[in-house]
Amino acid sequence: MLKSNDSLITGEMLVKYYELNKKKKEIELEMDELKEVFQSYFNNLVGKDMKGEITLSGFKLQRQIRKMEKFHEAETVKRLEEMQLNDLIQLVKKPDDSKIKAALELGLIKPNQLEGCIVTSLSPAISVKPVTPR
């Protein structure tokens, strides 16, 4: 592996990265297909949304069911308001990106009026593709 201070990139490295990335996508696709088979098996064996387990050829296959609950926002707020429990309702103030951009385009506000308000985040991404000759 390269050390952080080495910056030599070779054609072999690009080829290897490209080939590994291709294999990764093929493997993920194949794993997804197997997961579907396993889910179907457990649906038939123990029922939908039920945990299950089998042991075969020295391997244990388990299906776990994770339960997540959250409140339906509009309905819950409506009910809490009906019960006059407004203290249980959050009021969230946040900027409306699309309206701010429209106001900037229309000249209703100037960019310098929002100086220091814009947060920019960057995330590097690597892409290796074969170059097709023209």
If you had to describe this structure to a student in words, what would you say it looks like?
The chain is mainly α. Helix content is 41%, strand content 7%. The protein is built from three helices and two strands; from the N terminus they run H-E-E-H-H. A two-stranded antiparallel ribbon has the order 1-2. Strand 1 and strand 2 form a beta hairpin. The longest helix has 35 residues. It is flat. It starts with 10 loop residues before the first helix and ends in a 28-residue tail after the last helix. The mean pLDDT is 92.
Beta-strand segment tally: 2
Shape: flat
Q: Name the average pLDDT.
A: 92
Strand residue content: 5-15%
- Poorly predicted ranges: none
Q: How many alpha or pi helices?
A: 3
Q: Largest sheet, if any? A: 2 strands, antiparallel
Strand arrangement in the largest pleated sheet:
1-2
Distance between the termini: 34 Å
Task: Compile the SSE list and pairings.
Elements: H1 11-45, E1 52-56, E2 59-63, H2 73-82, H3 97-106
Antiparallel strand pairs: 1-2
Describe, in short, the structure shown.
With 134 residues, the chain is mainly alpha-helical. The chain has three helices and two strands; from the N terminus they run H-E-E-H-H.
